[in-house]
Amino acid sequence: MKIPSRAVITGASGGIGADFARILAAKKTNLFLVARRKDQLEAFAATLKAIHGIEVETLSLDLSLPDASEILFREATKNGDVDMLINNAGIGPWKKFTESPIEDVKKIMQLNMVTLTTSTHLFARHMLAHKKKSIILNVASVAAFQPAPRFTVYAPSKTYVKIFSEILSEELKGTSVSISCLCPGGTATDFLKNNNQALKGFNPLMSSEKVAKIGLEGALKGKTVIIPGLMNKIFSLFPRLIPSGWNVKIAGWGMNLAVSEADKKN
User: Fold this and answer.
1) Between 20 and 30 A from 69 (CA), which of 58, 110, 212, 246?
2) DSSP collapsed to 3 states, 67-120
3) Could you give the dihedral angle defined by the CA atoms of residues 59, 63, 65 and 66, in that order, rounded to the nearest 10 degrees?
4) C-alpha of 148 from chain center
5) What span, in angstroms and rounded, lies between the C-alpha atoms of 228 and 147?
6) For residue 160, how far is the Cα from the chain centroid?
7) What is the pTM of this model?
8) Looking at domain 6-261, which CATH architecture does it have?
9) Rounded distance, CA 15 to CA 88, Å?
10) CB contact set of 227 (below 8 Å; sequence gap of 6+)
């Protein structure tokens, strides 16, 4: 598939989202970047404009708000057609379900599932209407394949994103719109710090640049599910080989070895 001419990227002020933007900017794709951190987002946009000579628009928006998708769609389509949407924004505090404030639980479901779904709906209809070859790339996680304690809501939300993307990909076969789902594992971003996790000892993490590069390459090739890295591919297969009850116990054991809760003393 050809390089998109105008892409919307959520969660674009850092991590994988920012690397999606850098890679596309180098390919001369005009960008519409969305994140909560306005100053950081605008500074990043100015840098991309200066280096690559492209158009970069920004929108400071909390995507966990109920009407966020409608605001995003209205603002992103004001100045032209969109032929790529990257639903990258997501949250996943590593915390016991009953110790999590109900507001946080609702926010995970709203951002990871509801906003992603409604944004996909709005932009997919827009893309079908303008008939240009288009891509929607939804970012899930290897947690989509593996239930894990303390990811009581996050892991199911990412399972939803994967299955939703797979079904929609099939529904839209033969149209101008391609649907892909990227399932990264541990990645060197602020996600851990922002989601109540502190690393213990040595933990090999993929770079966000490599994850973004693999994700974009897969989406441009029309792959439905994209799992970056050999270890993540193995991790995604492992739950199919042993009983589900053992899966949860082993995942919990592995997470406890790798990380601790940032706001607790283990």
Assistant:
1) 212
2) CHHHHHHHHHCCCCCCCEEEECCCCCCCCCHHHCCHHHHHHHHHHHHHHHHHHH
3) 110
4) 19
5) 19
6) 13
7) 0.88
8) 3-Layer(aba) Sandwich (3.40)
9) 10
10) 142, 183, 184, 233, 236
Distance CA 82, CA 177 (A): 11
Residue type (1 letter), 193: K
Query: What 3-state class would DSSP assign to 264?
Result: coil
The CA distance from 143 to 130, in Å, is 35
Helix or strand run (H / E) with residue 187:
strand 187-188
Let me know: does 180 contact 135? Beta carbons within 8 Å. Answer: yes
Main-chain dihedrals φ then ψ at residue 225, nearest 5 degrees: -115, 125
For the segment 195-221, what is each residue's pLDDT rounded down to a tens digit?
Answer: 455 554 556 788 999 999 999 999 999
List the domain boundaries for the chain.
Answer: 6-261
179 has which bridge partners?
136
Rounded to whole angstroms, the Cα distance separating 80 from 134 reads 14
